[in-house]
Specification:
- This protein is mostly beta strands and 343 residues long.
- The protein folds into 3 domains: 73 residues, Galactose-binding domain-like (Jelly Rolls), CATH 2.60.120; 111 residues, Galactose-binding domain-like (Jelly Rolls); 108 residues, Sandwich (Jelly Rolls), CATH 2.60.120.260.
- Helix content is 10%, strand content 34%.
- The strands form 5 sheets. Strands 3, 16, 17, 18, 19, 20, 21, 22 and 23 form a 9-stranded antiparallel β-sheet that branches. Strands 4-15-5-11-8-9 form a 6-stranded antiparallel β-sheet, with no helix packed on it.
- β13 and β14 form a beta hairpin.
- α1 packs parallel to α2.
- The longest helix has 14 residues.
- The radius of gyration is 23 Å and the shape is globular.
- The N and C termini lie close together (10 Å).
- It holds the Pfam family Glyco_hydro_35.
């Protein structure tokens, strides 16, 4: 179908741009989002079922296009470059962890504000705000009851009373019941920026974090401590020297950072990290942010380029929001979900 379309365009004497010829990868927090009838965040991979794969490898489309172009110009094309082989480094054990709650005292002092502040207006980065990652909002409540976001969560919040997970708020879930309890307790909202809409009419509405009041029993929450969790390279570097890392227990529910080591004997090669058994989070390798994973799919592997690895020891750090596994797998084939063909 693709070759026929390209051939027909060329027969008409028109020029053509193949979108995408190579999709590549939305590394880090750069995956963006779409919004037509509803908000939809993009996955990390931008493989796009393109002519070249996410890792730059050839596909059947590539060779069929070469055949077509060779016929059009009436002579054979030069041989394409050799493909770099991919490595399967096997299982990687994540043997240490530190809960987010244990990390808070070592972070820069939180911003104190009577009202919630959206991510972009936080007094961070030389007063230029925070662009990506997470924001943790803390306040004090007395008792439990009905928590309502009024659709002011951008884009997804995990809700905790002290360190107990209560549930999630997002575009579809706007309310939760908070359990009753004795005395004053901390209400914590860990809000994730899942990606800004990158074209269309919603471009100027892309504010993240809490963009307005959240209500408990119809009363707006006030007096927040706000932690920016942008997870920039300097933040990841500081984690290496943070006290409090301990052995991962048999069962643990996040949010927490986990770390382990990948040992490579020879020249590093591209690989793909498969996070079966993990729920949702972000992976860092030698300080590089590979991007997001989420068990709901369709993407099941993250592309790890060989140049980001080194001979010897390589540090793997995972920020897991909820349920952690114990290992991740380094495989030589990506798993990006079924490709759907539409007639």
């Amino acid at each position: 179908e693709m070759v026929n379309t390209v051939a027909n365009v060329l027969k008409l004497g028109a020029s053509i741009n193949l979108y995408m010829f190579h999709g590549g990868t939305n590394f880090g927090f750069m995956s963006g989002a779409l919004e037509a009838d509803e908000y939809k965040s993009d996955v990390t991979s931008y493989d796009y079922d393109a002519v070249l794969t996410e890792a730059g490898d050839y596909t059947s489309k590539f060779f069929k296009l070469r055949q077509l172009f060779s016929m059009v110009i009436g002579q054979p094309l030069p041989l394409p470059p050799m493909i770099e082989s991919k490595a399967s480094y096997g299982a990687i054990l994540l043997h240490q962890y530190i809960p987010l709650w244990d990390l808070l005292p070592s972070l820069p002092k939180p911003i104190k504000s009577e009202f919630p502040i959206n991510m972009e207006n936080l007094q961070l980065n030389g007063s230029s705000g925070q662009s990506y990652g997470y924001v943790l909002y803390e306040t004090v409540i007395f008792g439990g009851g009905h928590l309502h976001s009024r659709d002011h969560i951008r884009d997804r919040a995990q809700v905790f009373v002290n360190t107990m997970y209560v549930g999630e708020l997002d575009y579809n879930t706007l309310e939760l019941s908070l359990p009753e309890g004795q005395g004053f307790r901390q209400l914590r909202l860990l809000v994730e920026n899942r990606g800004r809409v990158n074209y269309g009419l919603a471009l100027n509405e892309q504010r993240k974090g809490l963009i307005g009041d959240v209500f408990l029993n119809k009363t707006p929450l006030r007096n927040f401590k706000i932690y920016g969790l942008e997870m920039k390279p300097a933040f990841m570097e500081s984690l290496r020297h943070t006290a409090g890392w301990s052995t991962v227990p048999d069962y643990f529910v996040g949010p927490a950072f986990f770390r382990g080591r990948l040992w490579i004997e020879h020249q590093p090669q591209d690989t793909f990290l498969k996070l079966q058994g993990w729920e949702k989070g972000v992976v860092f390798v030698n300080g590089q942010n590979l991007g997001r994973y989420w068990k709901i799919g369709p993407q099941e592997t993250l592309y790890l380029p060989g140049p980001w690895l080194q001979k010897g020891s390589n540090e793997i750090v995972i920020f897991e929001e909820r349920t952690a596994g114990r290992i991740i797998q380094s495989v030589d084939i990506p798993y990006l979900g079924r490709t759907q063909y539409v007639d």
